Amino acid sequence: VFSLFGYKDASSGYIMGITIILWFTVLFANFAEAIAEGRGKAQADSLRSAKKDVEAHIIESCDKKDSMTNISSSLLKKGNLVYVKAGEQIPADGEVIEGAASVDESAITGESAPVVREAGGDRSAVTGGTMVISDWLVIEVTSEAGESFLDKMIAMVEGSSRKKTPNEIALQIFLIALTII
Prior knowledge:
Number of strands: 8
Mean pLDDT: 81
Number of helices: 4
Low-confidence stretches: none
Helix content: 25-40%
Largest sheet: 8 strands, antiparallel
Oligomer: single chain
Radius of gyration: 27 Å
């Protein structure tokens, strides 16, 4: 603005060019930050969509699979036994105590291939929000409502502060240097 009224060290075109470059740099930095924040929110939304309230089939013991009580998965308590069959979502985190089934964990791990979960051994843990693809499982719930793996992941994604990328750091240093100059 001063160069347009005659107060200038260089030509008005040169000063205008520098001004435009600085404005585009600031706009690009804000745009990059907005994209990164949007990705973080999308990840949290994706995790939230995997965690939905489903109907859980509580049984008294492994021998009494025929007498089930249906309740909301949000009312499950640690130690409840839950019967889950093919096509149903696992209502809570737990350990498989009977049965074997293919489980789709893609919502949690991103892995497209289903995994086999069975009673005993190191392949017996299941995560709430995953889907049983084949067969059936009897699961002992190991977490209280609000303390599941998905709840912890959502809290971690929402509460994390995003680190700046190397390009953002370089851009910030460049802007500071130009401001000083």
